[in-house]
Design brief:
With 306 residues, the chain is an alpha/beta fold. β4, α5 and β5 form a beta-alpha-beta unit. This is Polysaccharide deacetylase. InterPro entries: Glyco_hydro/deAcase_b/a-brl, NODB_dom, Polysacc_deacetylase_ArnD. It holds the Pfam family Polysacc_deac_1. It comes from Sandaracinus amylolyticus.
Length: 306
């Protein structure tokens, strides 16, 4: 069984402003839902990919966003929970607040689609045992937050420090470094969560095979690598029983077309055109298929591995 899933975290533009300690210029607040989501939906339709979209609950208060999420669900895509407000420091908050964040996020998805989400992804990939326990209490089938990637962990830590050195405050936080020793293939979480056990099924974010250094196999690395680089990265992850390619909506945003030129100095991926980034993603998808991977939603992968 060789399965692959492509997921999209629907973080709106204010989330990126929060990472970089910036204000959001008027007029660009909804660029992900208004501009990037239609591009992603069209790409997945061309490539016949059933994707998983992780929605932030508060964004679904906007009718236009609810309509897009509803349309995605009706097209066969999975809508999963990315919390209510996307607090980057979710793991630092009281358990009652964690419960509310996850429950309210799920309720917003039910109101938009009529279907309760079965999967969760933590903001910024940062999770802990308390969050896992809340997910189990609420009856979730899987989590997909663990990202055991040394290169990403180092880059994130350095970026937060650089933002602080410039006199701004990033809302992003770093995970427990022991996440780096977590399994990179599907596993049931133990105590602590980076060990195997009998708990909730975890489907980790994609990293290349262990012999290649567990490099990040996510939207940012794929789109910045171009078509040829995307093929190389995909060759480096091929062989894992499950490939979990995690994107963000911004991976198909276009700075010049979408009013995001103010993000260019801070966000490298918006310096590439949406067309170039789409070509890189298509290259990765086609390479996965050449290696015999079946593209499924994460919920379907969880059902089969579970």
């Amino acid at each position: 069984m060789k399965l692959a899933a492509i997921s999209v975290d629907l973080d709106e533009i204010p989330c990126y402003a929060a990472i970089h300690g910036l204000d959001v210029p008027s007029g660009s607040e909804h660029a992900i839902y208004d501009r990037a989501v239609p591009r992603l939906a069209a790409l997945f339709a061309r490539e016949d990919v059933p994707a998983t979209f992780f929605a932030i609950g508060r964004d679904l208060d906007r009718e236009e966003n609810r309509a897009k999420v509803r349309s995605l669900a009706q097209s066969g895509h999975e809508i999963a929970n990315h919390s209510w407000q996307h607090f980057y420091d979710l793991t630092k908050r009281p358990r009652g607040e964690v419960l509310e964040e996850i429950a309210k996020g799920g309720e917003a998805i039910v109101r938009a689609t009529g279907v309760a989400p079965v999967g969760f992804r933590a903001p910024g990939y940062t999770i802990d045992d308390d969050v896992f326990e809340v997910l189990e209490e609420l009856g979730y089938a899987y989590d997909s937050s663990v990202f055991p990637c040394p290169a990403y962990y180092s880059a994130k830590t350095l970026a937060i420090g650089a933002i602080r050195a410039r006199g701004r405050q990033s809302h992003s936080i770093v995970d427990d470094p022991r996440v780096l020793i977590a399994p990179a293939d599907p596993y049931r979480r133990g105590h602590p969560y980076w060990t195997r056990g009998k708990g909730l099924l975890e489907l980790p974010i994609g990293v290349t095979r262990d012999g290649t250094g567990r490099m990040p196999y996510i939207g940012t690395s794929v789109v910045l690598s171009g078509e040829a680089g995307a093929r190389v990265l995909t060759e480096m992850i091929a062989g894992r029983p499950f490939v979990n390619l995690e994107l963000h909506g911004i991976d198909l945003a276009d700075a010049d077309e979408d009013g995001l030129t103010w993000l260019k100095p801070h966000q490298p991926d918006v310096r590439r055109t949406a067309r170039a980034k789409g070509a890189a993603l298509e290259s990765a998808i086609r390479t996965l298929r050449r290696h015999g991977y079946q593209l499924v939603t994460i919920a379907e992968a969880a059902r089969r591995f579970g």
